[in-house]
Amino acid sequence: MAEQTEDALVTTPQEKAAAARKAAEEAARIAAEAAAAAEAAEKEAADQEAAAKAAETAPPGNGVTKTAAAESDQAAEDEAAAQEIAAGYAMEGLALELGTVIVGDTVHPDARVRIPMKTMNRHGLVAGATGTGKTKTVQGIAEQLSAAGVPVVLADIKGDLSGLAQPGQANDKLLARARETGDPDWRPQGFPCEFVSLGTGGIGVPIRATITSFGPILLSKALGLNETQESTLGLIFHWADQNGLALLDLKDLRAVIQYLTSPEGKEDLKGIGGVSVQTAGVILRALVNLEADGGDTFFGEPELEPADLMRTAGGQGVITLFELGAQAARPQMFSTFLMWVLANLFQTLPEVGDMDKPKLVFIFDEAHLLFNDASKAFLNQVEQTVKLIRSKGVGVFFCTQLPTDIPNPVLSQLGARIQHALRAFTPEDEAALSKTVRTYPKTATYDLEKALTSLGTGEAVVTVLSEKGAPTPVAWARMQPPRSLMDTIGDDGIRSRAQHSTLYGKYGTTIDAESAYEILTAKIQATAQRQADEAAAKGSRAARPAPQEDSMAEKIVKNPAFKNFLRSAATVAGREISRSIFGTRKR
To answer: How many CB atoms lie within 10 A of CB 359?
Structure first.
């Protein structure tokens, strides 16, 4: 009715046109508002969809936050995984604490990683690239063994571990790390240490071995001989043993070889068989090179007694730190010597079976030096020693950069694996990484190939043998900090401690005892004297043998060391020397 009234009021064409324009403008306005509203709604919907997709696909730490519920769920899963791993490291008996579990970039201080003391004689491996923290891991292991009353023999090739003798220095960062790695009661502490050097050219108590005790296999490794030359050296040792000739130092062995290749010893050389003059000459040259590198300071007497490595002080195990001494030019000599020490322990210690803690733990630093260019005979003896010495209560840990540095037969004997970060810069590194991953038990918690290249300094991937002898779950662990000084105490500090040691009075002075050199010198002299007497009896000066200018026999005779031996040579000769593992002398 109202519309009809309004239409009736618009009677002229002009009024009708104005009304139509007004209606069109209103319709256009409404349409524009509707289009703008639709566009805004579409943009909002698109933004929400993009945000949802970004949240679903974004990796952790890229700035996109999850909802509180999602974060809580992930934290709960990580905690459950950490506790499941830690359950595999729960021990009833005495244990060595390594650190705590990391899952999802979070350290879980109550999820402990440890090694049972009763399986420390099942040996182990500490590996990792330079600067990843393996030296501090070794330091922490040595500390806890000492605190438990277990003596430790530790190769300190680089001199980094002398700080074991002195308490550490606390700071806020160190204390925070101790708390998160399961050691809230951390306090500085020093441990009883003996500093010894290989030979007389170092700053520690000089430690020596005799040539006879060292044996042909180990000496061949130190000299860098090939298998043929090693076999020849073995025959030379056999001849000396048969004739009761004690080879105490390098001049003794040199005298034996020179005698066998001289006119006076040619009949003895024939009796050995298989020894050529040329090969003997190669061995002689190798001996000269070893002597030039400081080997003459190492071989001799007094010889190290294994019992001096197994002492305690105030209820703590004594940590014996070996440094290179004059053998810096021959690091392989250093590692070979440590193998001789281990062989001596094997021969002297009784069988003890399973124990609550080991009697001694032996740690080889830079273990790759032990196996570089090693002969088959040497590797077989190392494998046998590692396999059998655990029944004597001795644990052996190898410390090196790559697990592939250790031969597989030896690697298979190592129950504990503490692997610090690896670097994968070359195809060889990639291959070593893949091989390392395959040596660990399967784990659903970690991508091991990624983890081993992502470990931070002082973190390691760990698996050990449980008290029942089964492998524990793989754990990404943050390692506990040592309590002793994480630095060297300096040469003066080492020298002072060594000279005040009870061992210094026993090993500090070299003894040049009567041995093969003096016996052979006396034999050559007696032969020359007999020939002179025979010539004199005939009354003919022409029959006298002409002196050999600078002959080998003359050179030996001119050395005054032989004179004191003549009176006792007969009692030394004839005592055959028997040998055991590595061809070392039986004690």
So the answer is: 18
